[in-house]
Amino acid sequence: MNKIILVQQLKSLKKHNYKIIGITRNVVVFSNKNITKSKINYLNGIFTGLRWQCVEFARRYLIINHSITFGEIPNAYDIFKLNNFHNLSKNIAHPIDKHSNGSKILPKVGSLLIWDSTVDENATGHVAIITKVNFPDYIEVCEQNWHIDKLNRRIKTTYKNGFYILDKHVIGWINYS
Predict the structure, then answer these.
(1) What CATH fold (topology level) applies to the domain 2-175?
(2) Which of 4, 48, 70, 124 makes the best surface tag, with the fewest CB within 10 Å?
(3) What are the pLDDT digits (tens) for 55-100?
């Protein structure tokens, strides 16, 4: 099944003028080359979002690796306002655990990291997948449609008085398993 999903994602690339940044856990990570008008994207008939925005990547990652997704949202930072995700195989609500920046709960590999509206000039926020946790020094994230076309980047972390603190623009992280 994983090869089929990779082929489907790569076919989508061939139809459009985009660049592959890399692959993480069977999910192709694209650059939209700063194209401002994105088309709606689907994976196996399931809505993933605007091609190749950060929210689309988060949904595609969740669908491929966990068979869960979340509903439509106006901006990336609105993901943190959700009360649950949706389990696609059981067609039921899927519980999530939200932790604000400065939480006593450590983020996990696979958690969604959510930034606020002040992180970018479009005031839409940002979302990435945590791929490595190396506290107290840094976490590593995989992201799509960020200012650099790199598969991963490190974000400095601080542990102070029992609280985990990330970049000042981070709202928090969502654990879903």
Answers:
(1) endopeptidase fold (from Nostoc punctiforme) (3.90.1720)
(2) 4
(3) 999 999 999 999 999 999 999 999 999 999 999 999 999 999 999 9
CB 117 within 8 A of CB 132: no
Sign for the CA dihedral angle at 110, 92, 30, 174 comes to negative
Share of the chain above pLDDT 70, in %: 87
C-beta of residue 64 within 8 angstroms of C-beta of residue 27:
yes
Ordered DSSP codes for 45-112:
TEEEEETT-HHHHHHHHHHHHHSEE----SSGGGGGG-SEEEETTTTEEEE-EEEETTBSSPP-TT-E
Q: Do the beta carbons of residue 62 and residue 69 sit within 8 Å?
A: yes
Distance CA 91, CA 88 (A): 5
Nearest CA-CA partner of 50 in 24, 79, 133, 58 = 58
Q: Tokens standing for 100? A: 């604000």
Q: How far is CA 79 from CA 35, 54, 163, 170, in A?
A: 23, 11, 22, 12
Q: Which one-letter DSSP state was computed for residue 123?
A: S
Q: What is the pTM of this model?
A: 0.90
Question: Domain map of the chain by residue range?
Answer: 2-175
Please, which pLDDT band fits residue 1 given cuts at 50, 70 and 90?
very low
